[in-house]
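INTERNAL AUDIT FORM
Audit reference: QA-55
Scope: verify that the stored structure record matches its stored sequence.
Auditor: D.O.
Record contents follow.
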Amino acid sequence: MKVFEAILWPGTKVCQRLGIDPESDAGLIRWLINTLVYLVIGLGVVWIAAV
């Protein structure tokens, strides 16, 4: 379960900072934040690899 928690860490921390329960709404807000974080990281890796 530690790997799963590490992957969801960015969204969980942002939700806690905003005062939102990360488990509410079936975790959709946490999922959105995690998707945006990993999208930026993934695009950065692809951009660096392409240069």
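Auditor finding: record pair retrieved intact. Residues 12 and 29 are 9 Å apart (CA to CA).
Action required: none
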